[in-house]
Design brief:
By secondary structure, the protein is mostly helical. About 80% of the residues lie in helices and about 5% in strands. Strands 1-2 form a two-stranded antiparallel sheet.
């Protein structure tokens, strides 16, 4: 092809057709430039398509982790709400000085458990290694970064540290008034707990107003967890919805 063009230019020069030669040379240059521009455009289009495919894959993985974390949130909310309700029943039972039973033993067991929560973030770690700017939507990118960089780790630390502090507050009363046995509690619980059975120095336990106050503090903390996690759950659900909308554009 190049030899063909050279022959045309040579013939034009030999024939003394300088003006036509110049026009032809300029036209040839224009064609070459157009060809280069088209090649660059195709290359850019291929790169954009590859980036979009990578973005789609990452968004699907992020959605998967968010759905998993939403399940963790829902399960934790239900457990903490149930435990708060049990503590309410436990406090009323103690105030009315009703007899000790296995249900109360189970409630005492649940009230003592240390709070914890664990979120999944593998997709976000992959996103950081690729570059978070691959997510084209500014709003969605900010929401995802806020959830995985701030909300999830902050809630994990808060629940763990505050839970340990709460347990350390209630622990002396359990040591003083309650004794853990080797028997499983016969009462069936809806929560995924290994049920521990307590026996109690019940007469002295009933006299301890401080213990009831500590239980009330535990109930308040459980409700605070529920409130905070419900807010976080709403943010997670909204982000999942935004990801779904973004995926529809691919």
């Amino acid at each position: 092809m190049l030899k063909f063009f050279r022959n045309i230019r040579k013939n034009l020069l030999n024939e003394g057709k300088t003006t036509k030669y110049l026009k032809y040379a300029i036209g040839e240059i224009v064609l070459v430039v157009i060809g280069i521009l088209i090649a660059l455009q195709i290359n850019n289009w291929n790169q954009d398509r590859q980036l979009k495919q990578k973005e789609k894959k990452i968004l699907i993985e992020l959605k998967r982790d968010l759905v998993s974390n939403n399940s963790v949130l829902q399960n934790t909310i239900e457990i903490q709400q149930t435990t708060a309700d049990e503590i309410t029943s436990l406090i009323e039972h103690l105030k009315k000085k009703k007899p000790f039973n296995d249900t109360i033993s189970m409630y005492l067991s649940h009230a003592y458990y240390v709070e914890r929560i664990q979120f999944t973030s593998s997709a976000y770690e992959s996103l950081k290694s690729v570059g978070i700017d691959i997510i084209s939507s500014d709003t969605l990118r900010a929401d995802i970064a806020n959830l995985f960089s701030n909300e999830f780790p902050n809630k994990t630390v808060w629940i763990s540290e505050a839970g340990l502090e709460q347990t350390s507050t209630i622990h002396p009363y359990y040591t003083k008034f309650l004794e853990m046995t080797d028997e499983r509690n016969p009462v069936k619980s809806s929560m995924d707990y290994h049920e521990v059975r307590f026996v109690a120095d019940y007469d002295n336990l009933l006299k301890s107003r401080e213990f009831i106050n500590v239980l009330a503090g535990r109930k308040g903390f459980k409700r605070a967890i529920v409130f905070q996690l419900k807010q976080l759950q709403n943010s997670v659900k909204n982000t999942i919805s935004e990801i779904d909308k973004e995926l529809e554009t691919f």
